[in-house]
Amino acid sequence: MNPRRSALALALALPASLLLGPAQPAAAFGGHTVTVTGGIVLNDDEGDFDNPSQSGIDFTRKMGLTHLAPSSSIFVSYCHGDEVRGEFTVTATLQANDDVVWQPHLKLYEGASCDTSDLDGELSGQFRTLPPNFHQEARIFVPNSDEGGDWASVRYDVIHDVA
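The chain above was modelled as a monomer; its predicted structure follows.
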């Protein structure tokens, strides 16, 4: 058989995917996952032996971002001693260059129950930029600006994965 005809016959027999090359990675289509993992600790300066002055929980929250839906947030709420509540939020936005810009926010409530609306401390952390497949460790702390030694603290890691 003529070598040119052999090459043509082989080319026609190969699947189109082999001729076109490998598929583009998922990142080219905008699949980004931002994971926030850490722990929140609350201090109630009115604690006693039966109700320790500090307690906390560990958490992991994930959000998916695409260029069609570029913004999302995670939320963690924790109450200690039936009167001190911390609410932690991280908002993230996917940029055109595939970086993620994120910002933490922490609120401290103190009152007669976990459902109190008495906001006694609040802090919005700085905006940070996180490239694909990197992570950043951070901490945010809010004291009670109204009274006493109540406070909320969160140590956490923000991870930006691209499929």
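The chain has one domain: 26-162.
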